[in-house]
């Protein structure tokens, strides 16, 4: 099943813009596949203003968020996998949505196998010959 995160990111982004607020995203910098301005990363997280006045060519896709922005006057292309986005929120109010880390597909399959192995087994059904019929004729 596909992740709901990209759909929620787009919805919250649109809601923030509809209310004339400034959309920000909080990004986990430890996730693979990021293309970020490295000199501005301080710690495990970085925040980006993704409003139309701060970005150019903003793309909110299912797999990644991409845009161009200026950092101290230098145009920079930014690519963030959606799984790296920790929150989408309005700068002015803090209203928005935070996301939990999603389990990997492999982790989900392993959990399913463990659940099946741990499930109690039913005892075999008794033989039909040895048991009496459960139904009786009523006249």
UniProtKB/TrEMBL annotation:
<dbReference type="InterPro" id="IPR007481">
    <property type="entry name" value="SspB"/>
</dbReference>
<protein>
    <submittedName>
        <fullName>Stringent starvation protein B</fullName>
    </submittedName>
</protein>
<dbReference type="GO" id="GO:0005840">
    <property type="term" value="C:ribosome"/>
</dbReference>
<dbReference type="InterPro" id="IPR036760">
    <property type="entry name" value="SspB-like_sf"/>
</dbReference>
<dbReference type="GO" id="GO:0005829">
    <property type="term" value="C:cytosol"/>
</dbReference>
<dbReference type="GO" id="GO:0045732">
    <property type="term" value="P:positive regulation of protein catabolic process"/>
</dbReference>
<feature type="compositionally biased region" description="Acidic residues">
    <location>
        <begin position="102"/>
        <end position="113"/>
    </location>
</feature>
<feature type="region of interest" description="Disordered">
    <location>
        <begin position="100"/>
        <end position="139"/>
    </location>
</feature>
<dbReference type="Pfam" id="PF04386">
    <property type="entry name" value="SspB"/>
</dbReference>
């Amino acid at each position: 099943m596909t992740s709901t995160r990209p759909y929620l990111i787009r919805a919250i982004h649109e809601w923030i813009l509809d209310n004339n607020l400034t959309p920000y995203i909080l990004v986990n910098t430890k996730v693979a596949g990021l293309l970020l301005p490295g000199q501005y990363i301080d710690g495990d997280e970085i925040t980006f203003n993704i409003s139309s006045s701060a970005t150019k060519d903003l793309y909110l896709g299912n797999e990644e968020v991409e845009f161009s922005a200026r950092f101290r006057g230098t145009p920079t292309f930014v690519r963030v996998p959606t799984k790296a986005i920790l929150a989408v929120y309005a700068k002015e109010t803090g209203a928005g949505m935070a996301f939990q880390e999603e389990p990997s597909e492999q982790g989900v399959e392993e959990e399913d196998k463990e659940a099946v192995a741990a499930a109690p087994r039913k005892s075999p059904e008794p033989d039909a010959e040895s048991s009496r019929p459960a139904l009786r004729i009523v006249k």
